[in-house]
Amino acid sequence: MKAVIETNKYVEVTYEVIDQKSGRVLTSVEFPLGYVHGVNAVLSPQVSAELEGKSAGEIIEVPVDCNKIFGPRDESLVITEYIRNVPEEYREVGTAILMENERGETKSFLVTRKDRKTITIDGNNPLCGREVIFKLEILLVRDASEEEIAAGGKVEEGPDIETGLSIHEVLN
Q1: Local confidence band at 99 (pLDDT 50, 70, 90 cut-offs)
Q2: 14, 27, 29, 35: which is deepest, by most CB within 10 A?
Q3: Among 146, 137, 153, 142, which Cα is nearest to 2's?
Q4: Cα(first)–Cα(last) distance of the chain, in Å?
């Protein structure tokens, strides 16, 4: 009997996020995303709920209204600035910029446009205002170990490094 996705199962998936209007793939994961179902909220609750009861080898498509996850677009988070006023390291489309307000709160902005005179940065989530389809391929479903349940995902052991030195010898 095939293992099905339920709480405390270790799951590996790959996925694509497809814009419903254009059919264009907005993003995809090349390497499997592994998590413990019901323990780690790496996927939206709507997507996680659709994975329940599925097993390895299945492909599912989940329509998602991103306004419900990220809220509506906030045009006050879109800023256009003269390129000469922007440091060179922030002048490429796709560059993430972490900004801080006067209260010390931080927010990530993304450079979305650039022309000869200006650069536009956007603090909205890139999926904000879109309706998308999460297309997921389930690669693996198995019982999670106690360590994986505690960590919320796969526990990787680091390399076995033996130096023969004590901690005091290493630090001094």
Answers
A1: confident
A2: 35
A3: 142
A4: 57
Contact yes or no for 6/52 (Cβ under 8 A) = yes
- Contact at 8 Å (CB) between 120 and 83? no
18 and 34 inside one domain: yes
pLDDT in tens, 66-94: 888 888 889 999 999 999 999 999 999 99
Q: Which two tokens stand for residue 72?
A: 């509506």
Element (H or E) spanning 40, and its range? none
Assigned domain for 161 exists: no
SS3 79: strand
Range of the domain at 94: 74-122
What confidence score (pLDDT) does residue 170 get? 43
Amino acid (1-letter code) at residue 32: P
Q: Mark whether 20 and 62 lie in a shared domain.
A: yes
Q: Are 98 and 134 in contact (CB under 8 A)?
A: no
CB atoms within 10 A of CB 96: 10
